[in-house]
Design a protein that fits this description.
Elements lengths: L12 H20 L8 E7 L7 E8 L2 E9 L7 H13 L10 H14 L9 H4 L9 E5 L5 E4 L4 H4 L13 E4 L8 H9 L1
Parallel strand pairs: 1-3
Antiparallel strand pairs: 2-3, 4-5, 4-6
Helix pairs in contact: 1-2
The structure holds zinc ion (2 copies).
């Protein structure tokens, strides 16, 4: 029996307990599905600097031993239970043998859990999948004119300044820049206003 409490490094006791509950639930699910996660997960922490992803799993070398470190976006805990579980399970699966990428093994596990528990573990973690308000995470958005797919960006990148040069990844529709309230905006004026 592993000591799960030791895994979680966070200052607030309330948050710590919240994460612990999720972690226990996730380990239980993996056990039930006969999915062997690594016994070398050394920490699961909240990372306040994560901007473009809901979670990540890193390999680290500590005393010549390969260990895993999992980090969760601070805003994730404001979302639904399912949102947290989708991300946490996604990252825990990366610690399984041959699953550090999103290849066949990883995908097989994700599909298995999704089918059994009704989760929605995906290869890429987008905002919709996690039901968390994207406004909290992103400064800029482009929206597909055809299917409504909303893409958030943390920085003013080329897809925001030149949306006409890009297409929706889902349906190939054309894109437009929208504001936080989802109204169409002129990006040049928008950015100027932000700087004022
Ligand atoms: Zn991943
Ligand atoms: Zn689209």
């Amino acid at each position: 029996m592993r000591n799960q409490k030791k895994l979680i490094k966070y200052h607030s006791i309330a948050v710590e307990e919240k994460i612990l509950n999720y972690v226990e639930k996730a380990f239980h699910i993996l056990d039930e599905c006969n999915i062997k996660y690594s016994d070398r997960i050394v920490s699961i922490t909240i990372n306040n600097r994560l901007r473009s992803s809901w979670g990540l799993c890193r390999k680290k070398n500590i005393n010549n031993e390969k260990v895993f470190v999992i980090e969760l976006n601070q805003y994730l805990l404001e979302g639904s239970d399912n949102a947290v579980m989708n991300t946490l399970l996604h990252e825990l699966l990366h610690t399984c043998y041959n699953s550090f990428n999103h290849g066949k093994t990883w995908l097989r596990y994700a599909v298995k859990i999704n089918a059994k528990y009704g989760y929605n573990i995906k290869r890429t973690e987008n905002c919709e999948a996690n039901e968390v308000e994207p406004q909290k995470l992103f400064k800029y958005f482009v929206k597909c004119k055809k299917c409504g797919n909303l893409i958030g960006k943390t920085r003013l990148c080329k897809v925001i300044t030149n949306p006409e040069q890009y297409r929706c990844a889902k349906c190939k529709g054309s894109l437009m820049v929208v504001g936080k309230t989802d109204t169409k905006i002129d990006i040049k004026n928008y950015h100027k206003r932000r700087l004022e």
